[in-house]
Every structure is written in structure tokens, then in C-alpha cells.
């Protein structure tokens, strides 16, 4: 049997304020790793799950039916694998329940690693439906706004009406993403259940305008149009209260020159977009504001065209 392979999959910003469940952005330098090894026993198993500290993860299960990595890997292996099996090791780099696409990163890293063990590996885009099986288990719904950017990198438009196809949007030049992770947790499935089912025509029209404006701004590189479009009038107002520092951090980001600022996915992480030359200051302002609320935090600055999942080694 051949040696093990290691895949890295980045964290991601879901929704990007304007596109609930249909727009996502990959982050550079933070992600999960999955090591996959062919074994003679059939099926997918998990040998270990390690946390950010490198220790065995205290909460995440090694039960293959309960982990997004193995669920995604199994979906792929059942269709394209051999009669033998694969053993996974999952090394988390993305904090849990952070709004940074933690479950998606594990699912994506798993399918990319297992794909490399297939006799005829699939093209990376073709792995999306399998990775989505893992994400579905974690969030209780079908949305690709974390899985698709984690798999493919950059800024991805992925409405369910198009899946399994997605559209790569151009990254506006000279713009960075800033991601602040306050040391809090929000359960995505729970946060989704709390969302209103009914919206007004005004909200619908406004949000459509913002999404269209943002997509047009990315295509044309119009920084001012990004500033005028990066707003969420539908989801953010319903979720902001779950993140006690949100309003202060947002205000700090905007004061530091951010083009816009909102929750990353269901939170608690908060993202901002800003011109490259201001991005570090925006990150510092957000961190300072979060800490002055008594909440520890970490931040990352990322280009808008961060690389997607890849094999390492
Ligand atoms: N689009 C999803 C949500 C992303 O906002 O519920 C979760 O990270």
C-alpha cells in the first residue's frame, strides 16, 4: 500500500455580508490538515483528531459517523474508492464554532487527501458534492459558502440554484480581508434555526441590490462601490446580539477605514474588507475594540485570492 498523503484546507468567511449561504471567501494561513493512509480494512476510519494545541481533541469525535471529515471522505470513497479502506488523522487549525468554516475545512481537507489515494483522482472542482456531505452533517443544511472557497480558494459565488456548479468572482485588486476571531462560540445549526422565515419586500430588494452591487464592484474593481454595497440588512441584525462585542468592533473597523464589516458566517468571528494599505490598522483597531470588551481574540489579514485546498509534502 502507498504512503500517506496530507491535505491542507483553509478557513473561510461565509456569506461575506451580502450573500447569505451563497458567497464565500477563502482565508490564507489558517486551516485544517487531514492525513490519509490506505489500509486493508474496508471503509473510512479516524485514528485521531488533534486540536489547536496539538493534543487529542477533547470534543471532536473519532466516530466516522460523527465527524465531518470522515463523512465527506466516505461519500467520495463509496463512489470512487476500492474495496480497501482509508484511515484519517484530523489536525484542527481552525477553532470550533468560530464562524470560520471549521467543519468545512475538515471536510474539504479530507476529500482532497482521500482523492489523492484514488486510482483516478477527480479534478478538484468535482470534489465539492462530497465535501458538502460533511458540511450538511455539521450545519444541518445545504450551503456551500464555506466548502466552496475552502476547496477552490478566492471569492466564490455558490447559490444552491447552481450547485454543484459555482462561479469564481474576480478578486478586487488592492483589497484585503481582515478576520477577527473573538474567543466565543456560536453553534451554526442553532443560529440557523433562530433565523426568521419571513422577510419584507423592502429588505429583499435592498439585499438584492447590495449583492448585485458587490458582484459588479468585484468585476470592475470599484472600491467605492464595494463600500456602498457591503451591507447585510437581513441576517446580521438577527445575529449581532449573540456576539457582545460586535457593534463596537464594527464601528472600530469602519473608523479605521474598512470598506465594510459584518459577521463571518454565523459568527462570532467578524470580518472586514479594506484597502491593502489599511488592513493591518483595521485588524489592530478591531482587536483593540474586542479586548476592551473583555474578550480575548486573534486576527488574520488575507488577500482576497487566497489559495484553496492543496496537498502538502
Ligand atoms: N451561510 C452559513 C450561515 C455559514 O450563515 O449560517 C455558516 O458559517
Derived from helix and strand composition plus strand pairing, the structural class reads alpha+beta
Largest sheet: 7 strands, mixed
CATH topology label of the largest domain: Ribosomal Protein S5, domain 2
Tell me the distance between the termini.
Answer: 18 Å
Order of helices and strands: EEEHEHHHEEEHHHHHEEHEE
Report the helical percentage. 25-40%
Radius of gyration from the alpha-carbon trace, in angstroms: 19 Å
Oligomer: single chain
Query: Given the C-alpha coordinates, what overall shape results?
Result: globular
Low-confidence stretches: none
Number of helices: 10
Total number of domains: 2
CATH class of the largest domain: Alpha Beta
- What's the overall average pLDDT, rounded? 96
Number-wise, the strands total 11
DSSP strand content: 15-25%
> Which cofactors or ions or other ligands sit in this model?
L-homoserine
CATH architecture label name of the largest domain: 2-Layer Sandwich
Question: Mind explaining what this structure looks like?
Answer:
- The structure is a single chain.
- The two termini are 18 Å apart.
- The chain has two domains: 5-169, Ribosomal Protein S5, domain 2, CATH 3.30.230.10; 175-303, GHMP kinase, C-terminal domain (Alpha-Beta Plaits, 2-Layer Sandwich), CATH 3.30.70.
- The chain is 35% helix and 24% strand.
- It is globular, with a radius of gyration of 19 Å.
- It contains ten helices and eleven strands.
- It binds L-homoserine.
- Residues 14-15, 20-21, 99, 101, 143, 145-146, 188, 192, 265-266 line the site of L-homoserine.
